[in-house]
Structures are given as structure tokens and as C-alpha cells.
């Protein structure tokens, strides 16, 4: 069983670049996408009502902004989309989908940059992290099988970006953002990619300037975190930089089907 996460940086845009062809070849059971940037009715019909996939989308109130979506081979038993705070829920950043005993949380975590790149959105970003943490904490402690996937908009450690010394004051690598990520790890969430891959040079986002992707000057912003109840079923984790179409690339985990 494969679960994939991809910030597509506009689903309509990536659709024109071969998203359906990629989706067919991804060998996935569930795909969570972030930064859809469209209301469901604005998406091509072949994406909204795909004959091989069950789909579910959450849009932001602001046009052309944020949004998340799920493509699943099987219909989820239930999907929740709110954290209970209007300002957060208005941005369409969350899907909590249950597939039998497995819960998949698809999140587009906020960027801490303000309009003037002044880090003014960091408090909002941390509030999202903290509210989601609390939303999942009892289930995690109870041993439920949970995967939290998506664009976390944070590089956790120095190894997770190419130029850590140059970015210590940049949102995405600020101490308070990294500390919040640390809190999740200390609580028992497992960074699945780091569990299997200890070395550096693995990134999932590259700026579209200065030929950064070809030079592999990137950040690892996209993760799949597993609860201790889910981790025994995680067999592999991967980043897929060979997949183009967005400034991010997909990340994935392969699971024992018994997780469900």
C-alpha cells in the first residue's frame, strides 16, 4: 500500500503538465495534494470525477489560494476538514480521512512569511501546528494508526536544507518553527524518511530562481509523520525529485496493507 503527498502548486497548472499520467503511474492507494488553489467546481471534470479514484477537495475562501485534495482508490469512511477556528478553517488546509483502522491527515501547513516577508505569519503557522497536534494527541497516545502528511513549510534540522547558515532568520527555519517540529518528534511522531535515510542532500522544494533544482539547492519541507501505532507497518519512505510539474516534488511511504 503506497501513500503519496505532493504540493502541486496549483492543481490546474500541474494537470496541464501531465498530472493524470503521473497519477496513473504512481502505484499509489492514496494521494494527498496541497496548494490546490481552486474551488472543486473550477477543476477539470476528469480530476473531480475520476473513474479510478475517489476524490475529495477542500478550498480556501480566498480565491486561488491554498486548498487540499485527496485521491483514493477506496472511499474513505469519514473525512473531517476543520480545526474549530474560523481564521484557520477559512484557508482550506486540512483533511482528516479515515480508512478502516488507518487515519490519514493531509495538511498544508501555513508559511510564516507575511506579505512583506517579515515573518509576521509565524504565530498563525504555529497555532495551526499546535491545534492539529492537540486534535491528534489522544488518538496518538491510544496507539491509533495515523499518518500526517503534507507540506509542513519547515525544514526540521540543518541536514534538511542546503544552506542552513544563510537561512536561520528565514521563515521555515526559524528556531521557534523548528522547536514546534521538535515537540512533535519528542511526543513520539516519527519522521518516516529520516527513519530510513540518514544522509543529507535530500530535498522536496527548490526555488524556481537561479537554477536551484538542477543544482539541488533545496529544502525538505514535505514529510510523512507516523504515529507509534502506524510505524510498525511502514516499510519504506522516499522522496521523488525525478517528478516535475511543481516547485515541490512528491514524497511517499510504502505500508503493509494490514495497517488498515
Automatic annotation (TrEMBL):
UniProt GO MF annotations: DNA binding; DNA-(apurinic or apyrimidinic site) endonuclease activity; double-stranded DNA 3'-5' DNA exonuclease activity; metal ion binding; phosphoric diester hydrolase activity
Required co-factors: Mn(2+); Mg(2+)
Q: How is the cofactor bound?
A: Probably binds two magnesium or manganese ions per subunit.
Is Coiled coil there in the keyword field?
Answer: no
Q: Which domain of life is it from?
A: Bacteria
The answer to keyword Translocase applying to this record is no
Q: Which residues cross the membrane?
A: none
In this chain, the site described as Interaction with DNA substrate is at 248
Query: What residues sit in the active site?
Result: 108, 151, 248
Which ranges carry the Endonuclease/exonuclease/phosphatase domain?
4-248
Sites annotated Important for catalytic activity: 222
Chain positions of site Transition state stabilizer: 153
Q: Which PANTHER family match?
A: AP ENDONUCLEASE, DNA-(APURINIC OR APYRIMIDINIC SITE) ENDONUCLEASE
Tell me what this protein is called. Exodeoxyribonuclease III
* Source species of the chain: Hyalangium minutum
Amino acid at each position: 500500500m503506497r501513500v503519496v503527498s505532493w504540493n502541486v502548486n496549483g492543481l490546474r497548472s500541474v494537470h496541464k503538465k501531465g498530472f493524470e499520467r503521473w497519477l496513473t503511474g504512481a502505484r499509489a492507494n492514496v494521494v494527498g495534494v496541497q496548494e490546490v488553489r481552486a474551488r472543486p467546481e473550477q477543476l477539470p471534470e476528469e480530476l473531480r470525477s475520476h473513474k479510478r479514484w475517489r476524490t475529495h477537495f477542500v478550498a480556501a475562501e480566498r480565491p486561488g489560494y491554498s486548498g487540499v485534495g485527496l485521491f483514493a482508490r477506496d472511499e474513505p469512511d469519514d473525512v473531517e476538514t476543520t480545526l474549530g477556528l474560523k481564521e484557520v478553517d477559512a484557508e482550506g488546509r486540512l483533511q482528516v480521512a479515515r480508512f478502516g483502522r488507518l487515519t490519514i491527515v493531509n495538511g498544508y501547513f501555513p508559511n510564516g512569511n507575511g506579505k512583506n516577508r517579515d515573518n509576521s505569519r509565524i504565530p498563525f503557522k504555529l497555532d495551526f501546528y499546535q491545534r492539529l497536534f492537540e486534535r491528534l494527541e489522544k488518538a496518538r497516545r491510544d496507539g491509533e494508526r495515523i499518518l500526517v502528511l503534507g507540506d509542513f513549510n519547515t525544514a526540521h534540522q540543518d541536514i534538511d536544507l542546503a544552506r542552513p547558515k544563510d537561512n536561520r532568520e528565514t521563515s521555515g527555519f526559524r528556531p521557534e518553527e523548528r522547536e514546534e517540529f521538535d515537540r512533535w518528534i519528542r511526543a513520539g511522531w516519527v519522521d518516516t524518511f529520516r527513519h530510513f535515510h540518514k544522509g543529507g542532500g535530500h530535498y522536496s522544494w527548490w526555488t524556481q530562481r537561479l537554477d536551484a533544482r538542477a543544482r539541488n539547492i533545496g529544502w525538505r519541507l514535505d514529510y510523512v509523520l507516523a504515529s507509534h501505532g502506524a510505524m510498525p507497518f511502514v516499510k519504506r519512505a522516499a522522496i521523488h525529485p525525478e517528478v516535475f510539474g511543481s516547485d515541490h516534488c512528491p514524497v511517499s511511504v510504502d505500508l503493509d496493507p494490514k495497517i488498515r
